Amino acid sequence: MTNKDLPAKTCTIDRLVTMAEDVNKVIEGKKTATRRNGRYADVGEVMILKDKKYVVDRVYSQSLGELTDEHARQEGYDTVEAYKQSILSYHPGMPWLPHMKVWVHEFSPVNG
Predict the structure, then answer these.
(1) pTM for this one?
(2) What is the CATH number of domain 3-109?
(3) Pick from 99, 107, 100: which is nearest to 40 by CA?
(4) In angstroms, rounded to a whole number, what is the distance separating the alpha carbons of residues 27 and 58?
(5) How confident is the prediction for the chain on average, in pLDDT?
(6) Angle 35-44-5 (CA atoms, 0-180°, nearest 5)?
(7) CA separation for the pair 16, 35 (Å, rounded)
(8) Among the four 78, 94, 104, 111, which has the fewest Cβ within 10 Å?
């Protein structure tokens, strides 16, 4: 999927990864994706975290019900349940609905 096939962004890449714990997971190589309720970045866009650059490799839509433990590991958690509990702790009162769609932003370090 190319950027022109995606809907308009709803936010900016500088808001993609903001929590200190998540920033540290990215820098440690434990977090390689972020799921958001909107689209925050285009493929090829670069985010900077603590003076390190990361390029967005893929952007696609996924439902919460499609999440696997492998997806949870992209987010820096061992299991979907651990990821779910973390998200619900950040967003008290938010329902976790299997049909709810999120935007997945996969990224990798820029070397050099």
Answers:
(1) 0.93
(2) 3.10.400.10
(3) 107
(4) 19
(5) 94
(6) 75
(7) 9
(8) 111
